[in-house]
Design goal:
The chain has 608 residues and is α/β, with parallel strands linked by helices. Helix content is 36%, strand content 19%. It contains 21 helices and 23 strands. The strands form five sheets. A nine-stranded mixed β-sheet has the order 13-12-14-15-23-22-21-18-19, sandwiched between helices. It has a seven-stranded parallel β-sheet with strand order 5-2-6-1-7-10-11, with helices on both faces.
């Protein structure tokens, strides 16, 4: 790994656990700790442990654990890995998400091969050893684009300390802390310090019990991160220190802040980095800064708080009752809004509430949903599975098309835009997806031939795939900087029927992006509309603070009346469209100025 003189000999580990109740924000805390360490000059990677028996998050409803986050390698993982990627600007792998299902499957596979040489396979030591080996192996995978392993691995243990399903992991991590040795392991325990309204006093007993439970499982906290509505009073901090045997300077308050971008600064201001660096024996290393450089994070957080001019986006979806179902989408909208100096206001519109059936059964809900939709500056229809709310999404797409409201459809959102166009413009009243109507005579969307109809888990078209732009003068191509192609993440079983593409294009729909075969539609646009774009991929998964997704930036810009200047900034130089078109057709060697990533160099020699 790193050599002496500036780095460390051994990997350092920071474990984040949670107590008292779930939903305290362990994921955001782990991400913020990573940002803090990165700001000290360290390279950071992350692992999330989910104690459920599922192999991955792919088959779970968003109402169970929030959105299913998709990685470049096609891994369907917990949404916390999205937080890690956004905060740390890294690219994780499917193995960075450990589940009970993965561990037991790996151990059982080894047992079937006879790798245990006749031994009785048990939770201790075989499951616990497998957990520790997995952590050590994955921690060494580079995730920041640089060669070699990171300096520190931040591990988040999902669930709450004391849960039955997490017992093998707590035992394994207790052994692991001893195995890696003192100075290589730091435990941050996130707990709750509630305020009883009748008394108005911060209560420490839940945290005391949580720490006692943690110690009984063989884990000793170095730092306590206490969630509370306000900063801990000094006497409360001293009481927690006394009863939990944690130095007062290592007790951090995670009080409520206007936006989560404040959290790294909140940790820094309470000297959390000093506690972590001390526990990891990193003080004195040349490469480790004494003070974290969080200037960019601090300015972004403060700037976000000062935004006043609103932009309203109606999200017409199936899972609007739980915002975590669309967490990456929400963050992508926020990144774009802040970039354009607008205050994001999201109006959640249940797709089924704008359907005709709701008008009959619940007129009030119907009117309220349509009022939100008609009051929005832009409309976004996200992905989803199943037929509930599909007709409502189609109505939303029709409203945006006919009223020239900026529209972005993602995955299923693109498919319903195609269905609506076929119904309204081509006059195919029975146009549909075979997902919802297997017997439709006008199948605009069909099942992909390589998919499986018997096994749901991991059988979709998943992960990073390449999309080639077909029309370089399109809005999508310009927003992506006039590249010849773009790599985005996918998660779908159905696709636009290639047999109907020519009819749709003759009627005015433009498929501006396709896959390498030219048979799979990736991006659709209405050229004569202010902003009407659908994508088969999920651009929200690669949006980052300070580096918003191109298509979300386009949606917000169109909703604010700022799209033209944005597109003009990406205007294609004369003659370049033809060169890029030839590049796409396999003639790249003729044009040395077009690099292998599909981008052209502008007149300043800078990649657009």
């Amino acid at each position: 790994m790193n050599k002496e003189g500036g780095g460390m000999k051994k990997m350092k580990y920071v474990l984040v656990t949670g107590g008292v109740v779930s939903g305290l924000g362990k994921g955001v805390t782990a991400s913020s700790v990573g940002v803090l360490l990165k700001a000290c000059g360290l390279r950071v990677t992350s692992i999330k442990i989910d104690p459920y028996l599922n192999t991955d998050a792919g088959t779970m409803s968003p109402f169970e654990h929030g959105e299913v986050y998709v990685l470049d390698d096609g891994g369907e993982v917990d949404l916390d890995l999205g937080n890690y990627e956004r905060f740390l600007d890294i690219k994780l792998t499917r193995d960075n998400n450990i589940t009970t299902g993965k561990i037991y499957q790996a151990v059982i596979d080894k047992e079937r091969r006879g790798d245990y040489l006749g031994k009785t396979v048990q939770v201790v030591p075989h499951i616990t050893d497998a957990i520790q080996e997995w952590i050590e192996r994955v921690a060494l995978i580079p995730v920041d684009g640089q060669p070699g392993p990171a300096d520190v691995c931040v591990i988040e243990l999902g669930g709450t300390i004391g849960d039955i399903e997490s017992m093998p992991f707590t035992e394994a991590l207790g052994q692991f802390s001893y195995r890696v040795g003192a100075g290589n392991f730091c435990l941050i325990h996130v707990s709750l310090v509630p305020v009883i309204s009748a008394v108005g006093e911060q209560k420490t007993k839940p945290t005391q019990h949580s720490v006692r439970g943690l110690r009984s499982l063989g884990l000793t906290p170095n730092i306590l991160a206490c969630r509370s509505t306000s900063a801990l009073e000094e006497n409360v901090k001293q009481k927690i220190s006394q009863f939990c045997h944690v130095p007062a300077e290592n007790i951090i308050t995670l009080y409520d802040v206007p936006n989560i971008w404040h959290l790294p600064s909140l940790l820094r201001d309470q000297k959390a980095h000093e506690g972590i660096l001390g526990a990891l024996n990193l003080h004195g290393f040349v490469k480790v800064a004494r003070e974290p450089n969080l200037k960019e994070w601090t300015s972004r957080a403060e700037f976000c708080d000062m935004l006043l001019e609103p932009v309203r986006i109606a999200v017409v979806g199936k899972y609007t009752g739980l915002s975590d179902s669309y967490l990456s989408l929400l963050k992508a909208l926020l990144h774009a809004s802040v970039s354009l100096r607008k205050k994001l206001v999201v109006d959640w519109v249940p797709a089924s509430d704008i359907e005709d059936e709701t008008a009959r059964e619940n007129p009030d809900a119907y009117k309220a949903a349509w009022k939100l939709l008609k009051g929005a500056d832009g409309v976004l229809v996200p992905g989803g599975f199943g037929d509930r709310g599909v007709e409502g999404k189609i109505l939303a797409a029709k409203y945006a098309r006919e009223n020239r409201i900026p529209f972005l459809g993602i995955c299923l959102g693109m498919q319903i835009a195609v269905i609506e166009f076929a119904r309204s413009i081509l006059g195919l009243q029975d146009a549909n997806s075979t997902e919802f109507d297997p017997d439709t005579k006008s199948p605009c969307v069909v099942f992909m031939p390589e998919g499986s109809k018997t096994h749901l888990g991991g059988t979709m078209r998943l992960g990073s795939r390449r999309t080639y732009f077909q029309v370089m003068d399109s809005k999508s191509a310009k927003l992506y900087g006039n590249r010849g192609f773009v790599d985005e993440r996918h998660r779908h079983r159905y696709e636009v029927n290639p047999d109907m593409v020519s009819s749709l294009e003759d009627a005015g729909l433009s498929f501006t992006g396709k896959d390498e075969t030219g048979q799979r539609m990736e991006i659709v646009e209405l050229p004569n509309h202010p902003y009407y774009i659908g994508t088969q991929f999920h651009p929200e998964f690669k949006s980052r603070p300070g580096k918003p997704s191109a298509l979300f930036l386009g949606l917000i810009a169109a909703a604010c009346g700022q799209l033209d200047p944005l597109l003009h900034a990406h205007k294609i130089p004369k003659g370049m469209a033809k060169k890029i078109s030839l590049y796409q057709n396999g003639n790249a060697t003729k044009f040395a100025k077009i690099p292998a990533d599909g981008r052209y160099s502008n007149c300043n020699g800078v990649h657009a």
